Amino acid sequence: MKRLLLSCALAALPAFMSQTAAASDDVIAAVDARYDETASVARQLWEWAEVGYQEEKSSNLLQSKLAAEGFTIEKGVADIPTAFMAEYGEGGPVIAILAEFDALPGINQDDSPERSPITGKAAGHACGHNLFGAGSLTAAISVKEWLEETGTPGRVRLYGTPAEEGGSGKVYMVRAGLFDDVDFTLHWHADDENSAAARTTLANRSAKFRFKGLSAHAAGAPHRARSALDGVEAFNMMVNMMREHVPQESRIHYVITAGGLAPNVVPDFAEVFYYVRHPEASGVDAIWERVEEAARGAALGTGTEVEWEVIHGNNPLLVNESLAKMMDQKLRQVGGVQYTKEERKFAENIRKSMDDPWGEIDDAAEIQPYSRSLGYGSTDVGDVSFATPTVGVRAATWAPGTSSHSWQAVAASGMSIGYKGAQVAAKAMTLGAIELYTNPELREAARKEFDEARGEDYEYSSLLGDREPPLDYRK
């Protein structure tokens, strides 16, 4: 089991939790009956592996499936061509389900437990967003069928959210007011374990810092040049020294994306891409100020010029324990992922490729203890969670011990272990949505907790400012 910071004892089921047909075996069976479609959609998204804001085929596939089920589709929302909203039902609470579908550039892998890159493929689903999209699709359709069969007033709305990986697609959707009428939001994520823990995330902001200098022959006339790469390296050195003097929960990462092409030509352009993270948005702002000052100082010291473009920014996830405890109960009812002999062998071989993998193979079938914790990742779901009470679940779509953003994650995301995990999430979210439609006491408690957590004077502010969606950031 992973060690969780700030863990607390397993929480008791809230007294107001309903024991109605919301948790019926019939609902679980109905989701199970959609396994083949979940697997087919997940595999197709996996094969396409489209990166942020370029997910045209992936977005269209999800939209076509929803339209065939009677959902009303609104395309290109928030000025993002691949973003959409799909709604079914009328009256009652509006429950949103989030669906992601972007892949990560620079990593790919076949659906094999041994390292086997696919020649010519530039991206891969190393964070399992193909499973996220497919599982959420199944959940939305299953909720729609339940609303239809029971005649329950309510609307289910699936949000197709592009570019989670560094593009903050959901932030633009929140900023555009698309969640203003949503009562509750459900989401999930691929993982190597099953959990509905109340885990928050780090706020973050990224930017590309671009240095401009003067080029000349590096041997014949270096005195005539001013190296843009020197500016980047001086900048990086100053930020690296700064790491000692920031709060320990902070995270700063960078990659040099342009640094010249020939050693004997002093580069007149260089670029470095930075991420800054902290548990609070205010903490990101404070560190960011110092990073910007370091960039200015580096340019001054190297005789270059610098400018930067903020690419994305996410608020931390605002946990709602009323909802998280409910989702934990639903996940326990669903249960974890049961491997066949072939899947177990696949998982064992995957684990052989890792250095000291955590956990055990059988963890895939278990549900982790409920806890409240700080997670060190970041997600644009954070901004959604400040717009509407939000709850998530994680399902064991990868072999226990697998890290996200790894080739091992890509491999499992393209085969049955991943598909089974997506079904676990779909079942838990379906049961969770039904509980919310049928349990006014839960709705009231979750909303009260949400309002208190935000505070009376809360005003939404995004960490990416007023910039437009960076539709070409992956080109």
From TrEMBL:
Pfam families: M20_dimer (PF07687), Peptidase_M20 (PF01546). One of its GO terms (molecular function) is para-aminobenzoyl-glutamate hydrolase activity. The keyword Signal applies. Keywords: Hydrolase, Signal. One of its GO terms (cellular component) is cytoplasm. InterPro entries: Amidohydrolase, Aminobenzoyl-glu_utiliz_pB, Bact_exopeptidase_dim_dom, Peptidase_M20, Peptidase_M20/M20A_hydrolases, Peptidase_M20_dimer. The lineage of its organism: Bacteria, Pseudomonadati, Pseudomonadota, Alphaproteobacteria, Parvularculales. GO terms for biological process: folic acid catabolic process. Residues 465-475 have a biased composition (Basic and acidic residues). This is Amidohydrolase. Residues 206-297 form the Peptidase M20 dimerisation domain. Residues 451-475 are annotated as: Disordered. Residues 1-23 form the signal peptide. It comes from Hyphococcus flavus.
